[in-house]
Amino acid sequence: MNHACIECGEKFYGRTDKKFCSDQCRNSYNNRLNKDENSFMRNINRTLRKNRKILKDLNPSGKTKVAKSQLAAEGFDFKHFTHVYKNKEGRIYYFCYEYGYLPIDHDYFALVINDKI
Questions:
Q1: Same domain (yes/no): 29, 41
Q2: How far is residue 7's CA from residue 26's CA, in Å, rounded to a whole number?
Q3: In the structure, what pLDDT confidence band is assigned to residue 77 with cuts at 50, 70 and 90?
Q4: What's the total number of domains in the chain?
Q5: What's the pTM?
Q6: Do 47 and 26 fall within a single domain?
Q7: Are 44 and 73 part of one and the same domain?
């Protein structure tokens, strides 16, 4: 059956449900279709990776205490984290993947690692 590729318009033969003449056209079409969504997600993932790296670099021993100003100076974005954990005492830990932080007194944070993930 003769079809026209929905990306480039080139005529091709194939299955009746086939829409693209090649993998390249299929990828180009889907990349263009999802560009805005992918851009948004890419920016958030970049921020999460940066936050994780900052927490990892400031916490080589697995448990430490740092000032909020130090995290901010490194470019940490407090609005972005992957998940939260509430312990038995009701304290809320914020995580960027396996690296977490707990707000404590006087603008300080306890940094932790959850290596059981």
A1: no
A2: 7
A3: very high
A4: 2
A5: 0.72
A6: no
A7: yes
Tokens at 82, concatenated: 């992957």
CA 16 and chain centroid, separation: 38
Co-location of 65 and 26 in the same domain: no
Query: Distance (Å, rounded) from C-alpha 66 to C-alpha 37?
Result: 35
CA distance 14 to 18: 6
Assign 3-class secondary structure to the chain. CEEECCCCCCEEECCCCCCCCCHHHHHHHHHHHCHHHHHHHHHHHHHHHHHHHHHHHHCCCCEEEEEHHHHHHCCCCCCCCCEEEECCCCCEEEEECCEEEEEECCCEEEEEECCCC
Q: What is the pLDDT of residues 21-53, one digit of tens each?
A: 999 999 999 988 888 777 888 899 999 999 999
Domain encompassing residue 49:
37-113
Q: Which amino acid, residue 32? A: R
The single residue listed with the structure tokens 């038995």 is 88
- Is residue 76 scored above 70 in pLDDT? yes
